[in-house]
Amino acid sequence: MSKYLYDVPAPAKLNLFLHLVGRRLDGYHRLETVFRFIDLQDTLHFDRRSDGKILRSQETLAGLEANNDLMVRAARLLQQATGTSYGVDMACIKRIPAGGGLGGGSSDAASTLIALNRLWDTRLTRAELMRLGLQLGADVPVFVFGQNAFATGIGEQLRAVSLPPAWYTVVQPNAFVSTAEVFADKGLTRNSKSVIITFFDGWQVASHKKSEKETSSLLFGRNDMEPIACKNHVALDAVIRILRNNNLHARMTGSGSCVFVEYGNFTTATSQNRSISGKLLNLTHDRKLLIKGQWLCQGLDYHPLYSWLK
After folding, report:
1. Distance between CA atoms of residues 202 and 193, nearest Å
2. pLDDT for res 289
3. Partners of 259 in the β-ladder
4. Which has the closest alpha carbon to 303: 146, 163, 165, 159?
5. Which tens digits make up the pLDDT trace of 203-225?
6. Domain 167-298 homologous superfamily, CATH
């Protein structure tokens, strides 16, 4: 039995596509993407304190300074915004790899806001927590929003989308991709044509029907950041090439480095996931040279904490 009052999930996300459509005067990139939650998740633990202190377990977050820890920053932000006198003891069991484009830090921050909003009885609405979350990062609001979403702006303008059932192989190459490095590359394009969300809705229904006999589902659009990341990281490029050479529709998520393949049914997913493991292992005698992790994940319709907010 947990020693903490709350044990809550923080799910990862995939960017099913990621188009850069421009750049704002403040330097932020305008994008269009669809976020999908998956059941790869961190587990966060919280217990209320009456002395106002915000304390975290050093064992689970070793090496990360408190001021850089998004869970700590989220707790402090909520505390300051509401004036609550409560504090918290918290810990995190990490399963989502850092720097993989899966939104682990942002998801941890969002689940912290949601959990502490209940634990501290601060009673902020979903919209209010989304506005707070944006101060922590552009990906935080979608996790508070709690539904798979079409995102525009810098990723904070969200519209719920209905996605068909899907499973995903997620591969983490032995590469760390710097988002700042990708955005600074002169070869990065920022002029993708804007997507009409109704076109995406119609496309995905048609494509899933067509791909029932395929080894993996077709993917809409592209990730505009992927060519730059692959150019600079040999291991990432190798993983994507191997998967595509085996007729799998592979794509990098976010700014990388994780890569995913989508399937329309569980049977195909389990079979292809095993096949992918063999193909990647056969490339090198030292698996660590190519990949650091691989997961078979199910797509979610809602964030597990969706019902905690109004």
Report:
1. 17
2. 66
3. 171, 252
4. 146
5. 777 776 666 667 888 899 999 99
6. GHMP kinase, C-terminal domain (3.30.70.890)
Tokens of 113: 């806001």
Domain parsing of the chain, residue ranges: 6-161, 167-298
Which DSSP letter does residue 94 get? Answer: -
d(CA 102, CA 89): 26
Residue 139 annotated as catalytic: yes
Cis peptide upstream of residue 255 (ω within 30 degrees of 0): no
Annotated catalytic residue, options 13, 42, 69, 108:
13
Closest CA to 261 of 166, 172, 169: 169
- CATH assignment, 6-161: 3.30.230.10
Annotated catalytic residue within 26, 139, 210, 310: 139
pLDDT tens digits for range 46-98: 999 999 999 998 655 556 677 789 999 999 999 999 999 999 999 999 999 98
Residues 6+ apart with CB under 8 A from 193: 19, 21
Query: Which segments of 222-281 are extended strands (E)?
Result: 250-252, 259-263
Could you confirm whether 224 is annotated as catalytic?
A: no
The H or E element spanning position 74 is helix 70-82
d(CA 106, CA 134): 10
Tens of pLDDT, residue by residue over 103-125, are 999 999 999 999 999 999 999 99
Q: pTM of this prediction?
A: 0.93
Q: What are the C-alpha distances in Å from 267 to residues 26, 166, 217, 245, 296? A: 47, 11, 13, 22, 12
